[in-house]
Amino acid sequence: MKNIFVGNLDFGATEASIRSLFEAYGAVERVSLVTDRETGRSRGFAFVEMTDAGEAERAIAALNGYQLDGRALNVNEARPKTDSWGRGSGGGRPQGGGRGPRQRREPRW
Question: 62: helix, coil or strand?
Fold first, then answer.
């Protein structure tokens, strides 16, 4: 199983059109067209899972730079998502600092 990133898609591209493009090179397990959570509109990229690694490599070689709807596709092997700066560690705030718990302030009246 190989996961392929397909970028620079036209916003009108559909999962069916992407599937048919890749099926010319082998069996396609799944197509995931990434959409905006709020608007539901395509974000211009997708992921294609192909069952055979050799077929996936041929598809990547053939379709990278391929013109689809007037746009040159960016096709390569998908890489695992890495944590962005500040994520996973308390929102980017410094941890600790050796000061201990904060003391409550008395109101000024």
Answer: helix
